[in-house]
């Protein structure tokens, strides 16, 4: 095991030339980031998760109820053992052939079976109250950590001149405020990694999971290699847009549609400016060019730059979806949908096969088709996303 760790933490890969891990050990005069500090993130991530549960139960939920946020979930499907078995063990979206077979077996018309499956899928969706509580928690955390980051960074020279990130690198003592900021951010992303499996499911689950993995890797290894100055800039930049997004979602859940639309458009502007403008000109520029000019190249530099470019690709993807939503907002006079995220995977997709091929089901069931499809959308009465 020691041999594997020694190979993994090869100084010639992670550190600039003529620098060793021994050079970055803590002394009486200065403290430097240590790999073992990262272990603090795991108990702290658990604490953040527990704080979230308490916050949502005793703060967010009373606020939601006070704002008249709908507490009831979608209408439940009537109990039926045969359909439940098909739903849980075979498919949640039966095709035309299976629908016809179930119709004969139960002596139900196909439309009623379609309605049952639609209601059963909706039954797994979270209530508006649950979504409001999740958004309020994220809004509160993002607001706190962004405010903390801005207050800390505005006193540092590298906020105004990114070349200062490399002044004296890697022999830059670790400031207590920077250590706290880094570990809390890392802990939060670890908590997101685990809670994503229990949170509201979204269509871009895999993309968000990739984002969280890349973020955790970047935070962890940039900390160990003392790239904390540029890392703090990156974290603060990414937190800026998320505050507006969660605020837009909360406004939407409260049915304040004009406020929700305004906040979403503000989010779109901040997201695109920060991720497609400031990020490449500020973060990528200093990592790709200014660091190279100051210290030359070393293997870990390419590793970090590759991950930063992966993040930029995700930024471009999300920006494209957000621009589409903003365009719909402008052209239709309301925000149509934030495609970036928060579209629940337990979707209300139309029973397209059945409706297109079965003449008996050409109409919607009791008018519920269109209404059910709005859960998770920024339409006239609902909002969208995650982080």
Q: What is Rg?
A: 25 Å
> What is the 3D form?
elongated
Order of helices and strands: HHHHHHHHHHHHHHH
Largest sheet: none
Total strand segments: 0
Could you characterize the architecture of this molecule?
The protein has 387 residues and is an all-alpha fold. It contains 15 helices and no strands. The radius of gyration is 25 Å and the shape is elongated.
Short description:
With 387 residues, the protein is an all-alpha fold. The protein contains 15 helices and no strands.
Features:
387 residues, mainly alpha, 15 helices, 0% strand, elongated, disordered C terminus
How are the SSEs ordered, and which strands pair?
Blueprint: H1 2-8, H2 11-14, H3 41-66, H4 81-89, H5 96-106, H6 110-123, H7 128-153, H8 157-160, H9 176-195, H10 205-224, H11 228-253, H12 257-295, H13 299-332, H14 352-357, H15 368-372
